[in-house]
Design goal:
Layout: H1 10-20, E1 29-33, H2 38-49, E2 53-58, H3 66-79, E3 82-85, H4 91-100, E4 105-108, H5 122-142, E5 148-154, H6 178-197, E6 201-206, E7 209-210, H7 219-228, E8 232-237, E9 245-246, E10 249-250, H8 251-264, E11 281-286, E12 292-293, H9 294-305, E13 310-315, H10 330-336, H11 344-362, H12 369-375
Parallel strand pairs: 1-2, 1-4, 2-3, 4-5, 5-6, 6-11, 7-10, 8-13
Antiparallel strand pairs: 9-12
The chain binds nicotinamide-adenine-dinucleotide and uridine-5'-diphosphate-glucuronic acid (UGA).
Uridine-5'-diphosphate-glucuronic acid (UGA) binds near residues 218, 244, 246 and 294.
């Protein structure tokens, strides 16, 4: 017995067309994959707000609380963005989407995120970050018009580099985790599609993004929950108690970087610009240039929550984490006009407000042990 796909049909096509309809003469028609995710929701909303046509795609997998993804979906729905439910590996679905609407840009954010989860489910990283990326690039290559692709790589590609701050030209051949290896592989794969098929591709190396509507598997998020519940938080330390730190970057700064990358994608100026008729291939760091230790992260949360944390300092397990990240953003500043403006304190203040006023009251019912188990 054949089963019909959950997509297709006149009503579905109408929603797809309406969502992707450009509202301003200068607007773009953008497919955002991973739109029910943290970064995807914010980017899709920002593009829609400025008049672009925006269509989402997400498989709502259960890596973390799917209710949170559904709540993000509801928010986008109210803004006029339809999220098609499906997997980026579904080639027929992607073909259909490109047939139904002339997509000018793909912002590809769907991926298996999280560094430590790769220890327990390595296959999901290959499925989404390697096979899934190839499926998206195959669909983009075959589409008419051929869209420009902007996609999320990761600061994790710098791996075991000890030279900081990290610049785009630095070594990225020593990944510390399978997650990082799949993002590095993604950069190489993207280069092939630029080289052979002339796709315009921009890779964005995000640095530890945080903020309202964030991911419950990330440390700032589950630290908040555990501090409020009086549970101990584990603060990782390097060898000889060395500081473990991150270049935490606030979501609104990342969104501005993504939107600027969309606008820059077709241009032939700057790094990786068109040469001999070749479409651009570019990579940018999107970070905050001011690393903060995990210990200071916890202190800021204590201050904002007005609750003392029960702190456990533990030697960083061999789990794929790196000790230190720090972005050099000179290239993104110059070519994208990217200027992050949010300090960790003021960004966390906004996160904590969202967490207390919205998340902990309406969504966190079952999000406790489950999220904790994927984070340890
Ligand atoms: N948040 C960060 O700190 C950070 C840092 C560096 C890079 N990134 C990258 O940015 C992107 C967005 O990250 P995020 O934090 O929003 O993560 P997220 O998990 O919240 O969002 C990813 C979304 O993609 C969807 N998805 C996953 N696999 C899919 C598949 N096969 N088909 C369809 N949908 C699928 C998930 O359901 C999820 O909603 C990812 O590529 C991630 O690797 C994130
Ligand atoms: O920048 C990136 O590329 C990556 O940023 C984050 O990864 P990470 O920086 O490891 O973010 P968290 O998982 O929130 O960890 C933040 C810091 O807290 C530390 N940590 C984590 C968990 C814990 O129990 N204790 C602890 O000290 C980690 O070692 C790390 O230094 C995202 O989770 C990845 O998806 C992303 O690719």
């Amino acid at each position: 017995m054949s089963t019909s796909p959950s997509w297709g049909g006149p009503a579905w096509e109408k929603r797809v067309r309406s969502s992707a309809r450009v509202r301003r003469a200068s607007g773009k028609s953008v497919l955002v994959t991973g739109a029910a995710g943290f970064v995807g929701m914010h980017v899709a909303a920002a593009l829609k707000r400025r008049g672009d046509g925006v269509l989402g795609l997400d498989n709502y997998n259960a890596y973390y609380d799917p209710d949170l993804k559904r709540a993000r979906q509801a928010l986008l729905d109210r803004a006029g963005v339809f999220i098609v439910e499906g997997d980026i590996n579904d080639a027929a679905l992607l073909r259909k989407l490109f047939d139904v609407v002339p997509i000018s840009h793909v912002v590809h954010l769907a991926a298996q995120a999280g560094v430590r989860h790769a220890l327990t489910d390595p296959g999901s990283y290959i499925h989404s970050n390697v096979a899934g990326l190839v499926a998206v690039l195959e669909a983009a290559k075959a589409a008419d018009p051929q869209p420009a692709v902007v996609w999320a790589s990761s600061s994790s590609v710098y791996g075991l580099n000890s030279k900081v701050p990290f610049s785009e030209a630095d070594r990225t051949d020593r990944p510390a985790s399978l997650y990082a290896a799949t993002k590095k592989a993604g950069e190489e794969i993207a280069h092939v599609y630029n080289n052979i098929y002339g796709l315009s591709i921009t890779g964005l190396r995000f640095f530890t993004v945080y903020g309202p509507w964030g991911r419950p598997d990330m440390a700032y998020f589950f630290f908040t929950r555990d501090i409020l519940r009086g549970k101990p938080v584990s603060i990782f330390e390097g060898p000889d108690h060395a500081t473990v730190a991150r270049d935490f970057t606030y979501i609104d700064d990342i969104v501005r970087g993504c939107v600027a990358a969309v606008d820059h994608a077709g241009k032939s100026t700057g790094s990786g610009g068109k040469k001999h008729g070749q479409a651009p291939f570019r990579i940018y760091n999107l970070g905050n240039t001011s690393p903060v230790s995990v210990s200071d992260l916890v202190s800021i949360l204590e201050q904002l929550l007005k609750v003392k944390a029960v702190k456990k300092f533990v030697k960083m397990p061999r789990n794929g984490d790196v000790q230190f990240t720090h972005a050099n953003i000179t290239l993104a500043e110059k070519e994208l006009g990217y200027h992050p403006t949010t300090s960790l304190h003021s960004g966390l203040k906004k996160f904590v407000r969202w967490y207390l006023e919205y998340y902990s009251t309406s969504l966190s019912k079952q999000a406790s042990e489950e999220d904790r188990s994927i984070s340890s």
